[in-house]
Amino acid sequence: MQTLTVDLGTRSYPIHIGSGLLTRMEWIVPHIRGHQIAIITNETVAPLYLESLKQNLTDFQLTEVILPDGEQYKTLDELNRIFDRLLEQRHNRTTTLIALGGGVVGDMCGFAAACYQRGVDFIQIPTTLLAQVDSSVGGKTGVNHPRGKNMIGAFHQPLCVLADVNVLSTLPDRELAAGLAEVIKYGLITDAPFFDWLEQNIDKLLARDEQALTEAVLRSCQNKAQVVAGDEKEHGRRAILNFGHTFGHAIETHQGYGNWLHGEAVATGMVMAVDLSVRLGWVQPELRERTRALLQQCALPVTPPGDMTQESFLALMSIDKKVVSGQLRLVLLKRLGQAVVTSEITQERLEEFLHMVLTELSHQLQTS
Ligand code: NAD
Ligand code: GLY
């Protein structure tokens, strides 16, 4: 097992990464203050992993909340079901919530912990690759609103993160690929040697080689922890972690939550962000080809849906959380491994870029 620390002063916490950690409760029990625990999971993950987790937590008053599975249930209504259960079972302010699941469960459990009785403790046990490399680390929690993704939420850091790569063995291929999109993101934004490593090891990752997966989770978490430690509440640099997300969130919202996976939308969004960086002359076209090729090896989409128009992109991008005083900020690349947040892209430049991308796409669709 390997342990990293997210360095946030008095709120610092460990990320434990390894195989078979789900039953190693010695890593989480010392963090639990009271005698009450509520495990928040969903109907897919519960039959796979809830019993293993529970059998080592018998000394606690335990409540289970099993949510329906899917991004479309990441809502305030479902969040309320968590509060109903906690109140029904008389959980007090020393309770600890445990998120057992992917990013949807983790974000909802974290937000429930941030709100319940004005804030209780929580622990992340991420079970998707995406959650292990991204959503369980850094304290962003929340739910979607019909008008925008993750629009209702709070920063609330977990007490610890336990990432067991064994659980990835049951993950559907499409979900594994969606997680790899976020892994590739770290190579692009902060870690050029990691991008090279990914190009060399992508076959092993797709074959779920345990050692390769552990290395990918570790390197991703190292990159994320470093960025979060420097800018916990996203006043500046942390926004680079949203590379590809401004275009990606527009795609995800347009398609309806749950139709394109988050990582799939991010994959296309990253290609668009690299493409814009190339068209601005900031990076070489070769990087666009390398990015596209790596994502395609994972069977991830690299072009936006054929029915998205410039207008739909612009409308959905205008409610992005990175909009400040009406000015959209984009995350682009200055070079491989160096992302920047920029407000330099004017509305006209963005419209011209979207027009070019969508026209090229429509030509491709007509000739294919
Ligand atoms: P998800 O939580 O929907 O999980 C994907 C699917 O895999 C679900 O059907 C789930 O039930 C299933 N699953 C989970 N673990 C499994 C396992 N071990 N075996 C078999 N099936 C399993 O999706 P996700 O990709 O994990 O997370 C996406 C969410 O994360 C989005 O809502 C996104 O907004 C959020 N997110 C948050 C942050 C953050 O910083 N908080 C960062 C990135 C993404
Ligand atoms: N996934 C973006 C962030 O954590 O900031």
Query: Which of globular, elongated, flat, extended, rod-shaped describes the shape?
Result: globular
Strand content: 15-25%
> Terminal Cα separation, in Å?
48 Å
The ordered string of helix (H) and strand (E) elements is: EEEHEHEHEHEEEHHHHHHHEEH
Helix/strand structural class? alpha/beta
- As for the number of domains, it is 2
What Rg do the Cα atoms give? 20 Å
Low-pLDDT residue spans: none
> Which strand order spans the largest sheet, edge to edge or round the barrel?
4-3-5-6
Note the total helix count.
Answer: 12
CATH homology superfamily name of the largest domain:
Dehydroquinate synthase-like - alpha domain
Give the structure's gist in a few sentences:
The chain is about 45% helix and about 20% strand. The chain has about 375 residues and is of the alpha/beta class. The strands form 4 sheets. A 4-stranded parallel beta sheet has the order 4-3-5-6.
Describe what you observe in this structure.
The protein has twelve helices and eleven strands. It is an alpha/beta fold. The protein folds into two domains: 2-170, Rossmann fold (3-Layer(aba) Sandwich), CATH 3.40.50.1970; 185-367, Dehydroquinate synthase-like, alpha domain (Up-down Bundle), CATH 1.20.1090.10. Helix 3 links the parallel strand 5 (96-101) and strand 6. The longest helix has 21 residues, at 210-230. The chain is globular, with a radius of gyration of 20 Å. Nicotinamide-adenine-dinucleotide binds next to helix 1, helix 3, helix 4, helix 5 and helix 9.
